[in-house]
Write a structure and sequence with these properties.
Elements: H1 3-20, H2 28-41, H3 50-70, H4 75-88, H5 91-104, H6 109-123, H7 126-139, H8 144-156, H9 160-173, H10 181-194, H11 198-210, H12 216-223
């Protein structure tokens, strides 16, 4: 069960999209097309109808294409197009857009976090994701979620010592009361489960519950009896 890690990923992607809006686009038509595409991505459709879901992403991609044709440095349009392509199964296209963002802003930690997310989620390329997170941390070393995401990737490669070290550091620099904190404990607990450290895992899951993450109770039920 990787619920804590999914929450961290979702929070990270949401933050990245907000950060990418800071790279302003002066072409108002490009902004309009990008906003239209984003709206289409979020339109509700029958969850069971795969064709409808794919159709909305295909139309959204066309809007992002137009936005990028109008402004080929429009970071948010590349990011949203990457996510739409990912949803359509065009993983190579998603990666190309993600890497375009790093070429536009090579000194931005956010760019490398985005690349890492695509590598990890689309390709299961955890080693590649770790390298991207390494680069992000070199550029900005004070973001707890980057260490947690790298820790999750390290868990997948069975480098448990490195994963624990990253989660420990994420917890140490995460501000008290931050909503990310319970997920950090849950994530570290899952690493400890893989290490057969049952008592340590259960302490972390209990801490996560005490900090308000009720979903960690299922982790306790599954691992701590």
């Amino acid at each position: 069960m990787n619920i804590p890690n999914l929450n961290i990923v979702k929070k990270s992607l949401a933050i990245l999209l907000i950060l990418f809006t800071l790279y302003s686009c002066k072409n108002h038509s490009a902004v309009d097309y990008c906003n239209a595409g984003e709206k289409k991505m979020h339109e509700k459709s029958d969850v069971g109808d795969d064709a409808l879901n794919k159709a909305k992403y295909k139309v959204a991609v066309l809007d992002f294409d137009t936005a990028i044709n109008l402004d080929n440095k429009y970071v948010k349009a590349y990011a949203l197009r990457a996510l739409a392509k990912s949803a359509l199964g065009d993983h190579d296209g998603a990666m190309a857009d993600a890497e375009k963002i790093t070429s536009l802003h090579p000194d931005s930690a956010s760019s490398y976090i985005f690349v890492a997310n695509i590598r990890q989620n689309d390709f299961k390329d955890f080693e590649g994701a770790i390298k991207a997170y390494d680069q992000a941390i070199k550029l900005q070393s004070d973001i707890p979620s980057i260490y947690a995401l790298r820790g999750h990737a390290e868990k997948q490669t069975k480098d448990y010592a490195a994963a624990i070290k990253d989660y420990d550091h994420a917890i140490s620099i995460c501000p008290t009361g931050n909503s990310l904190m319970p997920y950090l404990y849950s994530g570290r607990g899952q690493v400890k489960v893989d290490m057969n450290d049952k008592s340590g895992a259960c302490l972390d899951f209990s801490k996560a519950v005490s900090l308000g993450y009720t979903g960690a109770q299922q982790l306790i039920d599954d691992n701590c009896k």
